[in-house]
Amino acid sequence: MTLESIYYIGQTVAVLAILASLVALYFQQRQGQVIARASSQRELLKSASEFLLLTFDNPKVLKDVRHGLMEFDSAPHETKSNFGNWAWVFLVIMEQCVYMKRDELITASSYNGFELGALGIITTPGGAQWWAHTRKVMGVDLVARLDQRLTELGGVTPPIYEFMPQFAPVENSKL
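-> structure tokens emitted (175 positions)
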């Protein structure tokens, strides 16, 4: 075996080692993405649970949310404040979902559920009044996405109290 042959064997081994390292890095990166996705999904669902507790733990806020969904502009100041804060929290969660979808960090079913909830808030009579004011200060990506979906759906989406009856107006509520 000549010195040149040994050199070529060494180069071949080096190339194979580099390729093996690249394959290992690829799988490590994929594993990191899976972990990031799971972590993001878990944090999002935790935020959603905390959001629901805003009304479950406070009957006055629940009453104001019900009122705000039906009429925002002429509601008392405290009702506007409670409803606005409640809706704001959900729309901020929805904005997070928009970015997580872009980065492929959320499952389609979770995203669709949050989107349905956001549309269900802003298409109620009071929610639409609130959204007309609030959309001006929300993220442009969120506003664009919700506008796009409303256009795609022809503006026909179920109000949030149809699929979450705890938010139904008292006269329609089964609570």
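The CA atoms of residues 10 and 17 lie 10 Å apart.
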